[in-house]
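Input sequence (448 aa), recorded before submission:
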Amino acid sequence: MIVCPQSMEHPRGSRCQRLPGQVVKMSGSEPERPQFLFVKALASRGRLEAVTQQMGYHPRYLDSFLKMQHYLLHMDGPLPFDCRHYIAIMAAARHQCRYLVNLHVLQFLRAGGDPQWLRGLDFIPPKLRNLNEINKILAHRPWLITKEHIEKLLKISEWSWSLAELVHAVVLLAHCHALASFVFGCGCEQEEGPGGRGSLKASPPGNQCFCEAATGNGCSQELLRINRKRSLDSCMELDSLRERIQRIHVETEGREETRLLPLDREEDTVGEVTGAANLACYMQDPDFGYQDFARRDEDQTQVFRVQDYSWEDHGFSLVNRLYSDIGHLLDEKFRMVDGLQSSAMAKRQGCEPSVFKRGIWNYIHCMFGIRYDDYDYAEVNHLLERMLKVYIKTVTCYPEKTNPEMFDRFWKQFKHSEKVHVNLLILEARMQAELLYALQAITQYMVS
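Predicted structure, token format:
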């Protein structure tokens, strides 16, 4: 239903072609302990982000997620590194997700991005600005995207996109839209501090320090040294970014009344550097939002039937052909969330784990107009209690309206890790829904 089974054989060219030793394979038969994954994240970033800590309740999934995200943002690909982070900013801004905007603004500047772009869409190249329309549609009503939107971006001109660049951008947009749902759904946005650092109330998996895996009885001095060094580097880098932005303001505004960054107020400075003070500058048509698919104009929009266009049969091969290896990494992530243990959740609901997860997945896809002919949708009302359905719909369709009380209120008898599991299903189902619509439109453009 979600992904094809591991053992299934597929004819060449018709379904996912997975090769032995593929980069997305797990390094061993046993899942990595979350502490080791946390150590990796700390050593590479200098701190643990709230999203990483929450996903750490499911370490096999976290490993798959981090590999895909690293490849998407930091490895060789069609798009320049600064543009990747700016596209992520545009995507996160659609849901007013300051947590992700803060992270990607800092990475945008570290990648050598022009600080002028942080003043808003009016200050970026037209090529990037032209992406705003499909960003808006994919974020809120992906069923409206058509081959005409694709043709407009690919039309030969000074600011045209290549197919490979567009596929890279589409995956970025879908990833950040879906990740915004996870951020709000798990409360990372509300728990974020002024500097963009999430601090979870829940302790890391295992109720022990994430560094214990390195030493056996406490935090290693080496990791603490790395953390202190990277924290110092971040402070020095913040000062450098502040000076760059201040210098640009002086050069560009000249005789006008200059709005320099206040150097004596650290919180204000961080707010300016991260560009999160006014997210409206990163989007157009802010009133455009989700609308129930059932209330659509039926003359213009048809139900999307997975039997006609699916990830396994069509989307995987297209995205992998135009953006090498990303298809394998995405497919591994879809497969991983489908394979997470959920026996306790299903037992409480009185059904099999696969039935329960399929109910959640199909309910999310149904909200975006994606239907499975072999599924009885009457099961959704039987499997999912009303409070859970309200939570899933809010996190999926308008995550910015989610509040911490909603997370605490649904499934009070369930463990925190089980609630995170539900949010992982929301993340992956939503991302796949957006990809299906976008990749179908690209396919229609290519064959027309």
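Checked by second reader. The first strand starts at residue 304 and ends at 305.
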